[in-house]
Structures are given as structure tokens and as C-alpha cells.
Design goal:
By secondary structure, the protein is of the alpha+beta class. The protein is 22% helix and 25% strand. It is built from 4 helices and 10 strands.
Length: 211
Amino acid sequence: MTMARDVLQSAAIGVGVTQTPENLSILAKPGCAAAIWQRRALPAFQTWIDGLNPVHLPSARLILKPEDVKTALTDICDTTGMPDGPHRQHLIDDIGALADVFCDIMGPPFLRLRLDRVTTNACRRFHIDAVTARLVCTYRGTGTQYGISTDGAEPRRVFTVPTGAPVLLRGTLWPEQPRSGLLHRSPPIEGTGETRLVLVLDPIFDPEEET
């Protein structure tokens, strides 16, 4: 996962920022509602993925073991017609590495992998996901937005995770109480012509319950 350094200008209170993926485990610290790996994609990769026809962006929703992620992604990219080459392989390798890091931190034997091509205002309302924790990484387009709300209303100050930077978010099933009040959403993009490519990873401890 060779990435160029990105300077994260600011983050909300309760959001940890790390320079290494392993340190996303700071999510377990008291009062840390989210953790961001401070990075930005290499320019050549970003230019490539931004220039692809959206129909060739991978789209999937799978439950699988982390060691099977790269093989599954290769098949998905073949199906959608994503051009083969070093940039496609970089995307596959990066998602596979994030899956390994996520499972090392959360400890599930399986994970739910979602790749979404987003062109509408999907999940535009600020919310907390009904999971223990979730990893989100936007590879193309505007990143996830978040902010602090003490009463459930829309945050007064909204922060945006940089494109290419993974964010690990606590969900409603995280055991610490009281909750921090950190909410997040997909950025409203309807009517802009933007197409986002978003990776979402959830921990799965019993795949039979999920099916």
C-alpha cells in the first residue's frame, strides 16, 4: 500500500488520526469514535480511476474470508470490464490489505465487503451504522462526511474524509457508553455528475446468521 503523504488539516473531537494502518486500532481507546488513516492515493492511480467510465467500476456485496478478498475482486473487475494493468492490481491489493488490517483489529473470521458505485444522495442523512464498527474508504469522488451532534440533529460543523483515506467508525453495537455523538453520511452529490467508488467492510462473526 504505497501511498503519498496527505496532510489532514483538522478532525473533529473524538476522531483519531494515524500515519499507519495498524494504528487504526486506536478506535478501541475510550472516547475515540472514529479513526482515520492519513493518506492520499498516488496521483497516477487517482487520475486513472477518476478517468474510468463508471460502468467499469467494480460493484459487489459479498461475505467472505479475508484471504479470499483479492481473488473475488479479480473476478468482479473482470465482470465489470475494468481494464487490467498495474492500477487495477493496486486497487485489488489495497482492498485486500485493508481487509487484513480490519480483521486483525476487529477479529472476525469473515467480513462483508461492499463496493458501491454511487451517483445519488445515498445515505445523505447523518447517522450511526447498526454494526460494531465499519471501515469505509472512498477511492473515487468525495469522501465520507462526519461531525459531532449532542442531540441527534445535523452537526453544525461538517468534516470530509480525504479521498483514498480509510476511516474506521464505531457503530451502535460498540459497547462503550455513552456514545460520542459522532455521526456520518455519504456526501450529497445528486445532480453534480459525480460518480463515487466506495469500499465498505463490516465484521461478520456468524455468516449463517447473516444469510
